[in-house]
Amino acid sequence: MAARRDTPLAGDDLFGADAPPQEKGAVGAESTASALTQPLADRLRPATLADVVGQGHLLGPEGALSRMLERGSLASLILWGGPGVGKTTIARLLAKAAGLTFVQLSAVFSGVADLKKAFETARRRAETGGATLLFVDEIHRFNRAQQDGFLPVVEDGTVVLVGATTENPSFALNSALLSRCQVMVLNRLDDAAMEALLARAEQAENVTLPLTEDARATLRAMADGDGRYLLNMVEQILSLRDGAVLDSKALARLLARRAILYDRDREEHYNLISALHKSLRGSDPDAALYWFARMLEGGEDPRYLARRLTRFATEDVGMADPHALPLAVSAWETYERLGSPEGELALAQLVVHLATAPKSNAAYKAYNVARRAARATGSLMPPAHILNAPTRLMQDIGYGKGYEYDHDSEEGFSGQDYFPQGMRRQTFYVPTDRGYERDVRHRLEAWSRLRERRQS
Predict the structure, then answer these.
(1) Of residues 383, 363, 368, the one with CA closest to residue 423
(2) Does 43 have pLDDT greater than 70?
(3) What pTM, to 2 d.p., does this model score?
């Protein structure tokens, strides 16, 4: 890492504001005039890394970023996480902790000229013994050629690059850039982190939010892991003048207008994904397509839908249509290759297939029962006759003795017992008579009769 410097150069920020690393956003740090207009989320921006909530796996005593700072070797990073989890704040505070000048770019508003200017400024700073942390927000929006432009300045140490993205870096960033950066995954803020933010807001404003316990929990849930959005909602609550304590219903009415904007991102996320799942399970392709389209139009990530549809293929279609799972994976891969909007048609095709496929959760139930049996029976050994015996000692103690090679039997089925010694045979998988599983059921019944005959 380049040498530390405690006094940043003035005017380093390309856009003229938020220049060198400083305790920006700490409570009381702004003038009274600016505090009146500055959003609460910005006023409460953490002043130290210890103040950041919800990212203990990175910033705790054993966190990856904490260890980097202790070693004095801050690497170039990609911070991957959802909105409002602290990516920009962490980058700013890393620069402060490492003694680097903080320079910020946004891939939405910046181009090649801005990058060249930032790199040249960083080179001049390095010549005088300074070092630069270049923070690039939404780095995934840069195209491949622009991403390649970071490679030489990262390799020669001109800048420590910290990129922020809400997209999976494996797909959104090119491999050359990824190979030179460490990817740090930021967690969505959990309930405890959200409550810590609420407490911090109350302390800073010297108030207690006029909410019942249920309404307070509802407020945290509505933010869906986004700390910035939580604090924006707190501002709306604090603007009330009547002093009434709000329950969950009153809170929903108060935030209804803002919730519409939020729903454009998540579109009543959990309600709609439940509607899609149950429409598929109910074999209604029209309703399933409607809810699928509603979620896409609301801004839902198609990758999330692909993951849920793949889960449905295993949980609700299962062995009734063994082609459902490979089709789901294929549709998911097609979306990753084509992107939006072309790739969404592959997911729509998958929705229709899953809705019209025969359904069975027999494999899903069998797996859960088998897991419970595995936990209950501990470490029972397999029966000796199905163990391999590659050494003379293992042969002498009975490994492999009595094993019957199924292909040598007339029906291709030996009927031997493969359960552990000391455990009675159990039936976990009970196939239905729907779709492909009907054939599986007939085979299992025939094998069961053969097994009983040969073991009697």
Answers:
(1) 383
(2) yes
(3) 0.54
